[in-house]
Write a structure and sequence with these properties.
Keywords: Oxidoreductase
GO molecular function, one term: oxidoreductase activity, acting on the CH-CH group of donors, NAD or NADP as acceptor
Pfam family, one: ADH_N_2
Protein name: NADP-dependent oxidoreductase YfmJ
CATH superfamily of the largest domain: Medium-chain alcohol dehydrogenases, catalytic domain
CATH architecture of the largest domain: Alpha-Beta Complex
CATH topology of the largest domain: Quinone Oxidoreductase, Chain A, domain 1
Radius of gyration: 20 Å
Distance between the termini: 12 Å
Shape: globular
Bound molecules: NADPH dihydro-nicotinamide-adenine-dinucleotide phosphate
Largest sheet: 7 strands, mixed
Organism: Gordonia insulae
């Protein structure tokens, strides 16, 4: 099995020197074990947080151990009746082409719907889709008629969030992303009413004001910093934010300036709620039913950027942090 391990804790942007590739000879299966040939592994922004040794909601990666994280693959050898050869499974054994572990670590999945590939279970019908669903509906308490702003709108969470907001009756959905191509996709493909490039002038604050002259009810924050500040500026009274991520600062070596207008939280009676999807897996069944149905009916699209080869996992991760993905970034290992 080819596996990627973290060997240094990066300061600022990770480099390939912070990782190493190893080859592991797998033993014969022990009773209770299965062997899974991965089809796709997930690279995710939260992994950057786990590369440093700090207190967080999940423990840091252990140096010299194989990178864990979401993956989907097929059982190729099995000792248990529940997971026969050929079963599609998801698991958290991460950056390796073959995973061999106790059956309890794998969850059986139905084959991907329609002509989607199994990677959809890492994206729109997986963790990032659930994050969008929970963040909008449970955390930000989206109401029909709301005006919604979503940052990081062309990424995995953002593409799902824009489409879910629209289907749940938002009146106006505004997105920001980092290129002209992505901005065009937001309105042409992901159901956004208006979109802007946060790298363009004028400021995010001004571009959001222009896109939402009457203000916003809901902000889904994937970025933090200047985007959160812009949202605080544009909120209507009683506005609600789901604080999902702050990718603008994940590789920063200096303190990123926080919003200078936090007092608006008081004067406008705003509710800003942070969340991590791991505390909301109880909503997975409802999410699977509702978003799965939308996908089957063609009301929701799933897009992804696919990087081939386990050896390119680090490049895929760094590309994700640089914005080289549209929709979910995945590594194809098969
Ligand atoms: P994405 O697919 O959105 O990929 C990351 C994107 O971030 C890039 O494509 C890039 O797009 C954008 N980006 C990078 N740097 C910046 C910057 N300085 N300012 C603005 N945008 C930037 O990743 P995910 O959908 O997986 O995750 C999105 C966010 O959601 C992240 O913050 C992540 O940590 C968070 N998250 C939180 C979860 C939770 O449980 N709370 C669960 C899953 C994700 P662009 O070209 O537009 O710059």
């Amino acid at each position: 099995s080819t596996q990627i391990q973290l060997v240094n804790r990066p300061h600022g942007w990770p480099t390939s020197d912070d990782f190493r590739t190893i080859t592991v000879d797998l033993d014969d299966l022990a009773p209770g074990q299965v062997r899974v040939a991965n089809e796709f592994i997930s690279v995710d922004p939260y992994m950057r947080g786990r590369m440093i040794d700090t207190r967080s909601y999940i423990p840091p990666f252990v140096l010299g151990e194989t990178m864990t994280g979401g993956a989907v693959g097929r059982v190729v050898e099995s000792t248990v009746d529940d997971l026969p050869v050929g079963t599609l499974v998801s698991h958290q054994y991460g950056w390796r082409d073959v995973a061999q572990e106790d059956a309890a670590g794998f969850r059986a999945l139905p084959d991907a719907p329609g002509d989607a590939s199994s990677s959809i279970y890492l994206g729109t019908l997986g963790m990032t889709g659930l994050t969008a669903y929970v963040g909008l509906l449970t955390i930000a308490r989206l109401q029909p008629g709301d005006t919604v702003f979503i940052s990081g709108a062309a990424g995995a969470v953002g593409t799902a969030a824009g489409q879910i907001a629209r289907l749940k009756g938002a009146d106006r959905v505004i997105g920001s992303a980092g290129s002209a191509e992505k901005v065009a996709l937001l309105t042409d493909r992901y159901g956004y009413d208006a979109a802007f490039n946060y790298k363009d002038e004028p400021s995010v604050r001004k571009q959001l004001r222009e896109a939402a002259p009457d203000g916003i009810d809901v902000y889904f924050d994937n970025v933090g910093g200047d985007h959160l500040e812009a949202a605080l500026d544009s909120f209507k009274d009683g506005g609600r934010a789901a604080l999902c991520g702050a990718i603008a600062q994940y590789n920063s070596t200096t303190k990123t300036p926080g919003p200078s207008n936090m007092a608006n939280i008081i004067t406008r009676g705003l509710t800003l709620t942070g969340f991590t999807v791991g505390h909301h897996f109880d909503q997975a069944a409802e999410f699977n039913r509702e978003v799965g149905q939308w996908f089957a009916e063609g009301k929701v699209v799933h897009d992804e950027t696919v990087i081939d080869g386990i050896d390119n996992a680090v490049d895929a991760f760094l590309g994700l942090m640089r914005g080289e993905n549209t929709g979910k970034m995945v590594v194809r290992t098969a």
